[in-house]
């Protein structure tokens, strides 16, 4: 296994995240370069805890959202989950993808529902247990119409389970920098990143309580809405069901993680 990914394994139970030379180089080179090129407007950076476990929870408008947050939060290291396909490609393209995502703090995981979703939660909890920071999108998938959708309870579960505070983030303009379907980001648009005050969600109860997870999630989404100023959708952001079984599953009462 190459040096740039040896500390970024996707398997639950692995050793704590340790910065590789590629990630260190990314923090030193990519973050300042991106801030120079895009000149992002950053508000509330004083709300970023300088150390200790923390969850950054933001709205989701573009593919680049998870990359913008680590850049805006630098020098604080921030990790986010990315599908494992970005780390397994071959040839020059595969090397570039693997190197880039490692440099910006991505952790490879198998994306999906069921056991894959539970494994992703376990991996994020392991990262938080080391005192590191993670970035997550409670909406789950990108908003294609610019509205803010209902949050899923996975972020709240992590916060209640680990005791980590949640810093809400409002991203504005990332959908113009890289709209859905775009191959490359625009160099003419600017992004605004608003960091809210850290939220202590422990008042809602234990992670084992569905009522506590839902209340904590709603508090997170209310804070994100105040920062992003998006129109509220009032529903979950879900892609069309791919088969009959999925349609039945969605029709049954269940908690959206």
TrEMBL record:
GO terms for biological process: phosphatidic acid biosynthetic process. SUPFAM superfamilies: Glycerol-3-phosphate (1)-acyltransferase. Keywords: Acyltransferase, Transferase. InterPro entries: Plipid/glycerol_acylTrfase. PANTHER family: 1-ACYL-SN-GLYCEROL-3-PHOSPHATE ACYLTRANSFERASE. SMART domains: PlsC. CDD domains: LPLAT_AGPAT-like. This is Lysophospholipid acyltransferase family protein. Pfam families: Acyltransferase. GO terms for molecular function: 1-acylglycerol-3-phosphate O-acyltransferase activity.
